[in-house]
Amino acid sequence: MAFFAWGIGFYGHGFYIVALGRTTGWPTTTLSAGVASFWLANVAGSLLLGRLIDRYGTRPAILYGALAMASGCFGLAAFETGFFTSPWQLFAIFAVMGTAYPGLSAMAISASLIPWFKRRLGLALGIGLTGASVGGAVMPPLMNYLTAAKGFGATMVTIGAVLLLSALPIVAFVIRSPKHEEAERECVDNDTSDSSAPSPGLSLFLADTRFWLITLAAMLSLGAQVGFLMHQIPLLQDSLGLSGAAIAAGLAAASGAIGRFVLGLLSSRFPLASLAAGCYLIQGVGLLLVLLGDTPLLLYAASAIAGCVIGCITMLPPLLLVDSFGAKGYGTAYGATGAAMFAMGSVATAVSGWLFDVTGDYQVPLCIMLALHLAASLLILWHGRRRRAQR
């Protein structure tokens, strides 16, 4: 699930901007707005699928995610054949993929793992989301290679078909709730079978300052991360070439696997708020090096530094929410947090593309992304201080 969610629906967008730009001749602003519709649709997808998960479990959400994401791949392929020719059609396809993303990514994966783990949830989530790093490391170079060899349309049709063949068996045979004795191994309160107790409503979370601090920090940090990653390939293309930029994107994703695993190990030993602030600042350093970098080696190193916490920024909201509110109503809580995160990702992607067209480079967008990470660090440290005071 993570391999395809991030490989297709996260890291792939920088490639789509370049590939569709060649196919359609549309400007970066139009293509960035199309990608922004992906993140904007995540808002509705997160809210609806989060509530669906609380009521019926993760299986329906994962099934929808697989079907809709594959349909988006088939839709993108149609631009090469000329079946689709208008920008609004591109926006609609990205929107469908956007509603699918929560059903395959952190929301569905974390909700599937939370009933099984308590003491080692951070480590379990870090291992479970390793597929995100593999997908990011493999998919952009693979799509670039297949497109050069077979064409963009054939590449997207193939990827969509493989996604369905991989994800549907997960829905059918893997996803389930733990039995009582299985939950006891991790000291998990196996209350998932208690259907008589309603899940907390969204209003309860919205009335809690802790929820807002977690959500605002997650929103700002993901907005900065998405703004960078969605434009990483076009940003680095002039200095490294398309193949080199794709390799840099893969390097960022690969380094994320290490950072995610380290965060999983540390999450049960150190305060989560302090770990979160450190992750936001590390990516800020990477963005600063991209801003100042003038050699290929430095740009590759900057991509690796920024990338080593990519997965951490995705992992932290689930861990922070469960730590503060418990597992009951998690789908609703993360759905609202995810909606805010994806809305910010949509704005960051569109604004970054617009600023590039206006200024002719990515200097201003990178400075804004750096400022967002600094603000996120301050907010989550404030949350950590309030959390300690309450204890």
Give your account of this protein's structure:
The protein has 391 residues and is mostly helical. The chain has 18 helices and no strands. Helix 3 runs antiparallel to helix 17, helix 12 packs antiparallel against helix 16 and helix 14 runs antiparallel to helix 16. It is globular, with a radius of gyration of 20 Å. The model has no long low-confidence stretch (mean pLDDT 84).
Secondary structure blueprint with pairings:
Elements: H1 2-9, H2 12-24, H3 28-56, H4 59-81, H5 87-100, H6 106-113, H7 121-128, H8 130-150, H9 152-174, H10 180-184, H11 202-206, H12 209-229, H13 232-266, H14 272-292, H15 296-307, H16 310-325, H17 330-359, H18 363-390
Helix pairs in contact: 1-8, 2-3, 2-13, 3-5, 3-17, 4-5, 4-9, 7-13, 7-16, 8-9, 8-13, 12-16, 12-17, 12-18, 13-15, 13-16, 14-15, 14-16, 14-18, 16-17, 17-18
